[in-house]
Structure of Putative fructose-6-phosphate aldolase:
Amino acid sequence: MELILDTADVQEVKRLSELLQVTGVTTNPTIITKSGKTPEQVVDEMLSVLNDDQLFFMQVIAQDFEGMMRDARKIHALRAKNVLVKIPVTHAGLKAVKAAKQEGMRVLATTIYSADQGFFAAMNGADYLAPYVNRMQSFGDGLGQVKDLLQMLKLQNLPTKIVAASFKNSYQVHELIAAGIQAVTVPPSVVWDMLDHPGTTSAVDGFSEAWHAAYGRDEVL
Ligand code: E4P
């Protein structure tokens, strides 16, 4: 499973990459605008922090086909090896997914609100699909739709990976990992929630206290 961080916060990417196996970073226009930085600053900072094996995902802004392709080529040109273009699954976007794949780009089809939208984007050759789990909950069973999409790709022998997105809590992430999802993109705050448990902190403190009380030192040997 690939763990991707959904953030423009370079410090969080550094911190979590030290602790965990992080495959890459996704951004979207909202994440970038909220960072208070220019898109160029976010791109420069992220590409300087990510290593050559990690992926960086950036989304097109234009809504028409020609504009999407212009944006996609600029994103692809940043570092073709490990920068992927995110394209929303509108009508123009589905056409752009096909065209971008024909031009040799790696593509993530995004803003997916139903299993059917994701399935058609996969048929167009998308490398990744980003269903918006939490946002889908407003229209029905988001987790169920993503699990359906997982089955549809498997049964139809499509190689596209799902990178489930738009998570608001650790339960949503846990459910999809347990269902066999190929990748998740998670905000750092939710990743920290998944890592931390008061039981672990108190157990480790208990071991240290017992050792110190018995041997008067904090080193093992
Ligand atoms: C990631 O690729 C998506 O853009 C992101 O997870 C959307 O999340 P949101 O629903 O918090 O905007």
